Structure formats: C-alpha cells, structure tokens
Amino acid sequence: MEKYSFPKILYHALRGHKHWQPAWRSPLPKKSYDVVVIGGGGHGLATAYYLAKKHGVTNVAVLERGWIGGGNSGRNTQVTRSNYFYPESAAFFEHSLKLYESMSRDLNINVMFSQRGVLNLAHSDHDMEMLARWTNAIQLNGIDSEILTPQQIKEMEPLIDINARFPVAGGFIQRRGGISRHDAVNWGYARAADALGVDIIQNCTVTGFNISHGTVTGVQTSLGDISGEKVHITVAGHTSVLAKMAGFRLPLTSMALQAMVSEPIKPVLNLVTVSGAIHMYVSQSDRGEIVLGAGADVYNSYAQRGSYDNVESCVAAFLTLYPRFSRLKLMRQWAGIVDISPDTSPIMGRTPVQNLYINCGWGTGGYKAIPASGDTMADTIVNDRPHALIKPFSLERFESGALVDESAAAGVAH
Ligand SMILES: Cc1cc2nc3c(=O)[nH]c(=O)nc-3n(C[C@H](O)[C@H](O)[C@H](O)COP(=O)(O)OP(=O)(O)OC[C@H]3O[C@@H](n4cnc5c(N)ncnc54)[C@H](O)[C@@H]3O)c2cc1C
Q1: Is 177 touching ligand 1 by the criterion CB < 6 Å?
Q2: 118-175+254-340 is classed in which CATH architecture?
Q3: What's this model's pTM, rounded to 2 decimal places?
C-alpha cells in the first residue's frame, strides 16, 4: 500500500498527480472465499479489514452492488458520539469512539475527525429533567458529559437564539463527540483491507443464497455463484430483502432518512447541535456547508429520495434556532434507506442459518459504529459466537424480551 504522507503529496504534485497507485484493485471474483461479505458500506469494509488485520483471514470478498460507500455510509451527516443511555450501548459506542480517535493513524488516511463536541438542547424544564437523567446515566457509564446553562450555550455557540420561540432551557455536551469525513472512512477501510488481500468487487449484486441442510454454502450474484464458508449480510436498509432470500424474517422497517447542505460559508458554527424537541440537528462541514438533518420519513420506502415536507420542517426547525441563516441557500438534499428495529438498537450476530451472520438495524445512527461493528463482527464470524460487546444486540433478544430500548433515551438518534 502506497503510504500517504506530506512528502508523498509533494512528490506526486510535482509530477502532476499522474502516478498515484490506485487506492484498491478491481479484481474479478474468485470461485470461493473463506468469508463473503455482502455490502460495501463502512460496516462491510471494516469487517473485512478486521478479519484480515486481527484474525489473518485474508481470503475475503466484499460484494457491493453499486460503488463502495454509495449507500448510507456515504450519505450520512457524520455525527460520532458515545453518549448513550444504557450500559450495553455505551460500552459498544465508546469502543467505537476510541477507534475513531486513532483511525487516521491506524488506516494511514486523514479522516478529518474533529472532536468539536456534540450539544443536545432542552427547551423546557421537563426536557431539562430528561437531559439531566440522560447525563447522569452517561456519567455512570464512565463517559464524558456535562450539563450546560443557556448562557454557557450562548458563549459556546453564539449564533443560537436562546430566546427563540422555544427558548433554550439548557443542554448537555459530550466534548469528545464530533464529525469526520465519511468518504475517507469508507475509502480508508477499503484501501487498508485491499492491501491485506481482501477482494473488493463493485457492481456485483447478490440475488440469492445457496443453502444446504440449514448451512449457507455461498451466494448467487449478478457475476455468477460464489462459494463462501461463511457469509455476512451488511446491507443496511435492504437487510430484510436479503433475509427473505435466505428464508427468515427480521423485525425491521426500512425508511428514508434525509440530509441536506447549504451553500458553503465561512466557519461560523463551532459544535454539532441537536434539538430533539424542535427536531433537527446541525453542524458545519470543513467545506463550509451547513449540514442539516432531522428524523426519518414516517412511511416505509426503498426510494432513496425522501419527501418534501421533511425538508420543509427540518429547515423551519433550523431557522427557529438560527434565524440569522434565513437568507442562506440550500444547495443539495438526499436520502438513504435506513433499517429501524423495534428498540432502535442494532441487530448483530448469528442468524437461523448456520454460518450466515447479520449486522443491521443501525437506523439513523450506524456511522459512529463502523469501526466497533467491523471489529466485533470479525471476531464473531471467526469464532462463531457473539463478541462480548455485541451479545446484548443479538437477534434472540426479540424472543427473550431483553431489549436495549434506546429509542426514548436517544431522541434524535444520529
Ligand atoms: C441521511 C442520513 C444521515 C445519517 N446520519 C448519521 C450520523 O450523523 N451519525 C451516524 O452514526 N449515523 C448516521 N446515519 C446512519 C449511517 O449512515 C448508517 O447506519 C451506516 O452508514 C450503515 O452502514 P452500512 O455499511 O451498514 O450500510 P451502507 O453504507 O448503506 O452499505 C450497505 C451496502 O450494501 C449494498 N447492497 C444492498 N443490497 C445489496 C445486494 N443485494 N448485493 C450487494 N450489495 C448490496 C448497498 O449498495 C450499500 O452500498 C445516517 C444515515 C442517513 C441516510
């Protein structure tokens, strides 16, 4: 793998940037692999990377029906934090946040991880009580979190109108939370996995499974059959479609989640700010765009578009808190299809089919999970038992009732 460094950039710049090594190969699929990963999003690529890096399993294919990172992993708003309510979620997401902190070094690519702080706002005494309860739980989980007064919030983020129609009653912040560059995360894992021998095969759609006596033996694809000793489904909003092909059902609904960006302006926002009550969240990208998002569209869909009324309500909520942006132009809007489970926690681990594994149900919040999910799923696949950190998130919880119900705890879950 060609090392990325300042002298390397200089060297290539002087040669007109014509001799960079491709970041990954484009191989034709082999007849068989030890592990076939379906889905070239962040989760699939990270799983392939950790299989090779930590377990020496390099005979791995990642099959992607489009281009890598073309799904939700390249469509999200990049918010990363570990301030979850329940200890199970906190342990998992804190592991992920720590992996984000060293990711640029580990993958030798600048993922532009900016720990600028994630601020959650309260707009009433009741809201504030809920945030205080949430903050206490986060602190009991050993994770940083601080309550802020409206004046402290105004000092940290001067453009928020704290006396708006729904006045800001306070909030809490996780200072280690922030944003990174999602393309760099996807490309970083792809490049590092490829360098370890993983085959990344784009434009290859999985259309079915070969299953013999309850054990998966491979997949049917648009490029022909590919055998796999173990197969891993990591296709976000399309997991139910793949599960149906394999003969089982999942407690998931698929919905469009939208995001949008304004025209670029000079740096004016310092934090990632979330308002669950007014219902929007905002940050400013390093390119200067104001990045906005809110909740998922309220109907099931596989159309990666989203509805107009969601754009309107998100912008209205944003302008309530930041009236100064009223003349800013919206530049782009898009959507991704997210898969939401009944307790809004992920589903990770084994399936009713032997040697077939799933990683899904990330809903609106799986970008922050990419490294930990890759790490723990690789371990789970190699050892055919759930890694300790993801045991609470197995499919069996919907039989036992041991749910990890983050839906009420997290509000806007990004
Ligand atoms: C608008 C938006 C904003 C978001 N904001 C945040 C945020 O701020 N923070 C956060 O933590 N999370 C956020 N998320 C959620 C996060 O993006 C996802 O949870 C995460 O990216 C899921 O990654 P993945 O690898 O599982 O899925 P994806 O990145 O969607 O990858 C799955 C891949 O599977 C491929 N695939 C599907 N079917 C097949 C098939 N049959 N054969 C082969 N390949 C197939 C798809 O083409 C796709 O590339 C957001 C999501 C959206 C849509």
Answers
A1: no
A2: 2-Layer Sandwich (3.30)
A3: 0.97
